[in-house]
Amino acid sequence: MTQPEATDGTAAGQTQEHSPREALALLAQAAAPERRGLVKGLGWLAVAAALEAIGPILGKHFIDNHVLPRQFDLGAMAGLLAAMLLSGWVASLTRYSQLRRMAAVARRSVLRLREQVYAHVMAQPMTFFDRSITGQLLSRITNDTDAVNNLYRQVLFVMLDSSIVVLGALVAMAWLDWRLMLIVLALVPASSGIIWLYQRASSGPVQRARALRADLNAQMAESMAGMAMLQSAGATARFAQRYEAVNQAQLGARVQELRANAWLLRPALDLLNVLLIVTVIFGFGQRELSGVEVGLLYAFLAYIARVVEPLIQITMQFSQLQQALVAASRVRALLREPVPATQQQASLTVPHGAIHFDHVSFGYKPDQPVLQNLDLKIEAGSFVGIAGHTGSGKSTLLALLLRFYSPGAGRILVDGQPLAQLPDEAFHQAVGLVPQEPYLVAGTVRDNIRMGRAISDERLEAAAKAARAYDFLSALPQGWDSRLGDGGLAVSTGQKQLIALARALAGDPRILLLDEATANIDSATEAQVSEALRALRGQVTVVAIAHRLSTIREADQIVVLNHGRLSERGTHEALMAIDGGIYQRLVQLQALED
Ligand SMILES: Nc1ncnc2c1ncn2[C@@H]1O[C@H](COP(=O)(O)OP(=O)(O)OP(=O)(O)O)[C@@H](O)[C@H]1O
């Protein structure tokens, strides 16, 4: 099948809106089943912040009531000190246990989210994958959901926890002296201003680094998928150079981002801290410094120390937070991609396997018809070969039968029932496919034919016999327990193709589709495939696209497509009798090639 063209990086329908609201909605949705646990956790964090806020007030009492008036009431002083220590410890313990609880909620939420995204992508129609670039899709499922994990950690731990601490300290300060509290409160807009400046300086590099990273992933996935082509074309060095260049650019963008952090963000926040302390001390200097004010000064300095660190924490996480928000909104956009509604009827089955293309038209793009008004009846149990020039629509016809796409006009009937209405299970049971590129999984011969289906060993062997694969499989070093696929035995393309045929037949299909299954195999194996197809006559409807016309020579009916229209139809002999016909010319061309 012709490879789809990738025009842009995003799957269609994926608007690139990166609003924080979208991202937060995603978090809320993924954590929804654990809302109670989260609310409880937040409640306990508030208790911890309140306990922490008590410390400096106790310290103030200690100074004002005991140290300055020189009232060394040992019992009361020990009580105050113990209360300070205890409240600190209990606060730390509470905070630690709640943060652990939230980390677990985050892990479980991301797990759920990843499963949801995967299932959603799997449910997409083929047109979605035509529009997406595999590497970017992979990156979306793995990296972006990882980034959502980060977002959880940051939103829940840094942002919420730090905000609660800041709030607790501000309330305590207001209670002590609201005017001084207002001075400290100025810290919030001042640090927001710094964040804004920082964002402006770093958003370019942040976006660039992110885009380049996605590019790196996409390049890697594409290179792996096309390794044979790259190596045979001697293009590996060039691709490595391209990868290196993007890698360098990504590093450059990251360094720029870190520079903005090191030269702007941290020094500015430190300066702010110093300014604040100076202002508060100056504020005290303006008053008549009575004894009582010393305790207050102590409490305020203690609170400032507590407020500044969480605020710095919030701001320092900002660039990561930005990335995580972008990733989360992308995941949400992916989840918004609509899954087409099916009108399947549970009662339908495929008892025979007769196919009727009832005036079917189809185009991948609305204005470019690929199949035009195709009217074709295929009897149950018959063998039909599809031939035609390259690009004539053969693979497209098969893609429609496989329900990868739906006809634009007309309909496809199987045993008189609309193909679209067959329930998935009945459809997969009824239709077997042998693709052009046979595909082996890492596992034994049995695993490779069974493919996780509940099929008895006897049935597997019968399928292997029908596919003419039994003899060579049994002769492998460990017979049917030999390992194939990644890290397993190397078998020839022809042998892989016989395994693929056995796999398709093991499911006992009513309809068997072959997509250029004999294009890359030797003549001896092709003869075996032809023999197998002959033997299926009367039992299974076979629709075979064959570039190699000898495979379909004995078909009951050969259908020739030309620019998406049915142009000739008949047995090999009948079509060869059409002088100047497309089929005749294709056969002659092939004879010349051979
Ligand atoms: N996924 C796709 N998206 C857009 N256009 C496509 C897609 N697949 C095929 N086409 C276009 O549809 C037309 C028919 O292609 P198709 O693959 O069905 O032809 P074919 O007869 O099977 O060709 P070949 O023998 O080369 O496999 C071509 O013009 C092709 O470019």
TrEMBL record:
Pfam families: ABC_membrane (PF00664), ABC_tran (PF00005). GO terms for biological process: lipid transport. GO terms for cellular component: plasma membrane. It is a multi-pass membrane protein. Its main location: membrane. The keyword ATP-binding applies. It is found in: Cell membrane. GO terms for molecular function: ABC-type oligopeptide transporter activity; ATP binding; ATP hydrolysis activity. Keywords: ATP-binding, Cell membrane, Lipid transport, Membrane, Nucleotide-binding, Translocase, Transmembrane, Transmembrane helix, Transport. It comes from the Bacteria. Gene3D superfamilies: ABC transporter type 1, transmembrane domain, P-loop containing nucleotide triphosphate hydrolases. The keyword Ligase does not apply. SMART domains: AAA. InterPro entries: AAA+_ATPase, ABC1_TM_dom, ABC1_TM_sf, ABC_transporter-like_ATP-bd, P-loop_NTPase, Type_1_exporter. This is ABC transporter ATP-binding protein. It comes from Roseateles depolymerans. The lineage of its organism: Bacteria, Pseudomonadati, Pseudomonadota, Betaproteobacteria, Burkholderiales.
